[in-house]
Amino acid sequence: MPDTDTWCRYRLIDSAADYGNEIETGKGIKRALDEGICSREELFVVSKLWNSFHSHVDEAIRKSLDDLGLGYLDAYLIHFPIATKYVPIATRYPPEWLFDPSDKYPRMEFDGSVTYDQTWRAMEEQVASASAPHTLVLMRVVC
User: Fold this and answer.
1) Residue 141, Cβ neighbours under 10 Å: how many?
2) Is the CB of residue 49 less than 8 Å from the CB of residue 77?
3) pTM: predicted TM-score of the whole model, two decimal places
4) If the chain, 143 residues long, is cut into consecutive pieces of 10 residues, what is the mean pLDDT of each piece?
């Protein structure tokens, strides 16, 4: 964890399921809050929906919140506007880019059954629910 001087200046916490460090980030946040370095309201915490969770937004945001040890996020982004085939958390987390890395020919497997609109609506539902109060949801689409 950064020293106290760093925490006094750095209040944007940019995390994501794919970074694979939300548990550690959550421990750092807890320590900063417990030591009175800052309050939760002084932090702006971001996480991101990974490609394989476009059809499982509720599960993904709950996992990030649990790993970070938080009751809400300040922003939740669609990491990439690419829906890939769902990989259950129990199978592999973070799921990474390839559907089955042990396959003879590992590859991304796209999920054409979920649209950007469906993903966006599922994210908006999380904001409206108790799962993600106060959360701003964003989608990054580069054309």
Assistant:
1) 8
2) yes
3) 0.85
4) 60 92 95 92 92 95 95 88 93 91 93 91 81 58 48
The beta-strand segments (E) located in 1-143 are 12-14, 44-49, 75-78, 136-139
Phi/psi at 80 (nearest 5 deg)?
-140, 145
The amino acid sitting at 98 is L
Q: Residue 15: helix, strand or coil by DSSP?
A: coil
CB 60 within 8 A of CB 86: no
To which residue do tokens 């964003």 refer?
A: 138
State yes or no: is 19 an active-site residue: yes
Burial 71-94 (b: 16+ CB within 10 A, else e): ebbbbbbbbbeebbbbbebeeebb
- Cα dist. 52→71, 125, 143 in Å? 23, 18, 21
Q: Could you give the 3-state DSSP secondary structure of residue 33?
A: helix
Active-site choice (19, 72, 93, 116): 19
